[in-house]
Design a protein that fits this description.
Blueprint lengths: L1 H17 L3 H25 L3 H24 L1 H4 L7 H11 L2 H22 L2 H10 L1 H24 L5 H11 L1
Helix pairs in contact: 1-2, 1-3, 2-3, 6-7
């Protein structure tokens, strides 16, 4: 459920961006964050579901985000499966398959930190690490928002005459 919900949510978010529905994209992220927080507290703290509660919470958040985007954009009704190019699918798979082990190993490295800290330093230090790791995560989210807006604007400005000064000003501000 977690894999399917996350895959659908990420795909539908890219589609929302492709349709230039940035408000829907942003609201879906807010819905996901709030759902994760509220369901996490309810399932883990209030109902004491432990690991099952964590997995359910992490599955519920992208599922609701996906449903919000689908409800607003009706992506499923726009899909035209007969237009899928099998040659392109094969090329994409050929390109992406070698990248999968890299992604899996990054996930292992990032998630193993918490276990090592818990084993050697204790639960309290693990809690401090968890909370402190949210700050870089927040900065990364802000940076991602900037990059999304920048990519769209950079493409639009590419053919303008004063593009060099525009690009320079953006990088100075960034």
């Amino acid at each position: 459920m977690l894999l399917i919900a996350t895959t659908l949510d990420n795909s539908w978010k890219y589609i929302a961006r492709a349709f230039k529905k940035n408000l829907i994209y942003t609201v879906s992220g807010i819905i996901s964050t709030i759902t994760l927080g509220v369901s996490g507290i309810l399932l883990i703290v209030v109902w004491d579901m432990g690991l099952k509660g964590i997995l359910l919470s992490y599955s519920l958040a992208p599922l609701l985000s996906f449903l919000f985007i689908e409800f607003n954009l009706k992506v499923i009704t726009r899909l035209k499966l007969n237009l899928i190019n099998r040659k392109t699918i094969r090329e994409m798979l050929k390109y992406s398959l070698p990248l999968m082990p890299n992604d899996i190993l990054w996930w292992l490295i990032l998630s193993s930190n918490r276990y090592v800290i818990k084993i050697y330093l204790g639960i309290n230090e693990n809690g401090i690490f968890s909370v402190s790791s949210k700050f870089p995560s927040l900065m990364s989210s802000v940076n991602d928002l900037f990059n999304m807006a920048w990519q769209e604007r950079a493409i639009l400005e590419y053919s303008s005459e004063d593009k060099n000064s525009y690009y320079s000003n953006i990088f100075i501000v960034f």
